[in-house]
Every structure is written in C-alpha cells, then in structure tokens.
Amino acid sequence: MLNRRNFLIQAALFSLFNKNFYNIAKANTSDLSKKSELIKKTIHSSKKKIPSIGMGTWLTFDVGNSTKNILARTKVLKIFFDYGGELIDSSPMYGTSERVLGKCLEKINNDFNLFSATKVWTPNTLHGVKQIKNSQRLWNIDNFDLMQVHNLVNYEGHLENLFQLKEDKKIKYVGVTTSHGWRHAKTLEIMKRYDLDFVQFTYNIVDRESENYLLKLAYEKKISVIANRPFQGGNLFKLIKNKELPIWAKEYDIFTWAAFFLKYIVSNKAVTCAIPATTKTNHMHQNMQAMYGLLPNEKTRRKMSQYIKNI
Ligand SMILES: NC(=O)c1ccc[n+]([C@@H]2O[C@H](COP(=O)([O-])OP(=O)(O)OC[C@H]3O[C@@H](n4cnc5c(N)ncnc54)[C@H](OP(=O)(O)O)[C@@H]3O)[C@@H](O)[C@H]2O)c1
After folding, report:
1. 27 located within any domain
2. Range of the domain at 186
3. Is 230 in the pocket of ligand 1 (CB under 6 A)?
4. Pick from 172, 288, 308, 309: CA 20 to 30 A from residue 139's CA?
C-alpha cells in the first residue's frame, strides 16, 4: 500500500534519481554528438526529417509493472531523447512494452520529441480498431504518428481502416512490417499494391536479403524504410566478440561495433531509420553515437560487409 509517508519518500527518491541520471547522461555525451550534426533522413511522403536512429521495444521494455523496472527503462529512454532520438517502435504483441513505455514517457514529463510508431496485430479488423485505441491509452497519447500492420496479419482489413484514419488525420503515416526475412514476396506485393508511407523489415550487415528487392522497390516507390533487428537480436555482438574494429572505421566516426553495425544500415540510401533495442544505458550511449558524424560511402560499405564476412 502506498501511504502518504511512502509516497513522499518515493517522490523524493525519484526526483533525486532523475537529476542524477540526467547529469550522468549529459556527462557521458561524447564529443561526436557535441561537434557534429545529428543525421536525419527524410520521410518521402511528407518531406519531414527524422533522426536516423530510433528505438525498438520488443523484449527490452516487456518488463512488467515494478517501479524498479520502470525507473531502469526510464533511464534508457531519457538518454535516447537526450541525444535527439525520436522514433520509438512498439506493438501490442510485445507483452507489457506499450504499458511500460507509457509509464516511462510520463516520468520524463513531456520533455521530448516523440515520433510514435506502433502496430495493429489481430486477425479481426474490428478488434484492430479497439486495439489501436488501447495502444493510445497505454502510451498516453492522443494520436500515433505511424500505425503499421504487424507481420502483415489481416493486412487487407487493417489497411482499409488505417488509410481512413490517415484521411481523418487520426494518424500521419501508414505502414506494414515483417522480420527475420519472412514473407518478402508478399511484402513486395503489398508495397506495389498500396500507397504505403513506411515499410519495416529486417536489414543488418549479415541479413542482406532485402537489398535484392525490398530496398530497391522502396527507393523507387519512395516508401520510407524502418530497419528492424539491426543487431540480429544481439547475435552480431557474439560474432565480433574479442575482435578489434578495423582501423579505417575511425575515418567514418565509428568507434564502437554498435556504431559500425548501425552506420552500415543507415548509410543505405533507401533506409530511413534503424531501431536498435536495449535494456542498458551504456549501450544506448553507444547506439546513439551512430547518429552523428560521417556516414560511409558505397565503397566503404562494401569493405565493411566484406570485413564481417571474413571474421
Ligand atoms: N515484425 C516486426 O514488426 C518486428 C520484428 C522484430 C523486431 N521488430 C522491432 O525491431 C526492434 C529491434 O529488433 P530486436 O529487438 O529483435 O533486436 P536488435 O535491436 O537487433 O538487438 C537487441 C539486442 O542487442 C543488444 N544490444 C543493443 N545494443 C547493444 C550494444 N550497444 N552493445 C551490445 N549489445 C547491444 C541488446 O541487449 P542489451 O539489452 O544487453 O543491450 C538486445 O539483446 C524490436 O525491438 C522491435 O521494435 C519488429
């Protein structure tokens, strides 16, 4: 039970904690973010620019309701916003993630620029309408920027509803998602058939199947791309364990493996944003560094993927 005394103690602790982690976040902000411009990419359908690194919430924000967990994720989120991050991706499929995210946003107290992206994930179209309202309640926001059909489930029913919501100005952008290299042929078909604003699929330095068709078509049709699983769910860090970064990476302001992997993705001209997920503040610092400094050119991108192949 939260009596008045406990409430006051918790409020005082939270305020102290808030100040501390804010200072830590600022103190750790490396030179790169201070001396170079944040890399933004343009959303084709609106010409609005958004930061090239966003944040995923699958597993990492599905941590239940305990105050301890909410405070830990609030720290991570605060650092994301401090570096200039905007796009956050979630889904009703991600357990308590949307609820936890809503609580964290509330704690940060509106001190952020949020580009909200979630999904509708149900075989039933009418249930989808309710699900979207529930997500708004959980995030505690009036309208979403981007609403995506998760894993193409019942895409015909949901897309009809989402385009109507866009027309009614209840959402700004419509998209579909897939991942793990699944259902690329179907995704291509949907990209050709509908006027999507966004498409989301897996793209990272080892999972490059999407370069063959999906990225090409997205670029031609001017559909903005969100790259999910940028670290292949964390496997890429196992791959390079105990391996040194190549010396030449520094020429592109790449000082960590996280930045190496993320800059490879967002330097593809068809990619709008990559959405790494993390539970850790030090990892969030590393990931957000990829949003600053120089991006590799095509020749260097080939060198990067070759380097990883040879590991
Ligand atoms: N169908 C879909 O729509 C779909 C499917 C899959 C994913 N997604 C979206 O894409 C997002 C990202 O994909 P993902 O969560 O599967 O995987 P991911 O971002 O590729 O990898 C996450 C893993 O990488 C680790 N990590 C993060 N930063 C790190 C760093 N700097 N150094 C070392 N390890 C680091 C994390 O562990 P720590 O917690 O220890 O940092 C976590 O285990 C999801 O959260 C979700 O929003 C969408």
Report:
1. no
2. 48-309
3. yes
4. 288
The residue with tokens 């998602």 is 177
Q: Is residue 32 in a domain?
A: no
At which residue do the structure tokens 């990829």 appear?
A: 290
CA–centroid distance, 232 to ligand 1, in Å, is 7
Nearest CA, atom 24, ligand 1 = 234
Is the distance from the beta carbon of residue 60 to the nearest atom of ligand 1 less than 6 Å? Answer: yes
The DSSP-derived string for 221-270 is HT-EEEEE-TTGGGHHHHHTTTPPPPGGGGGGT--SHHHHHHHHHHTSTT
Is the CB of residue 289 below 6 angstroms from any atom belonging to ligand 1?
no
**Please, are residues 134 and 92 in contact by the beta-carbon 8 Å criterion?**
yes
If we measure between CA atoms, which residue out of 53, 84, 34 comes closest to residue 275?
53
* Distance from the alpha carbon of residue 282 to the mean position of ligand 1, in angstroms: 14
Dump pLDDT digits (tens) for 186-203.
Answer: 999 999 999 999 999 999
Q: 151: Cβ below 6 Å to ligand 1? A: yes
Q: Is residue 298 part of a domain?
A: yes
Whether 27 shows a pLDDT value over 70: the answer reads: no
- pTM of the entire predicted model: 0.91
Tokens of residue 84, six digits: 């200039």
Q: What is the CATH number of the domain that holds 129?
A: 3.20.20.100
In a domain, 12, yes or no: no
Per the structure, the count of domains in the chain is 1
pLDDT band at 30 (very low <50, low <70, confident <90, very high): low
Closest residue by Cα to residue 144 from 167, 171, 164, 165: 171
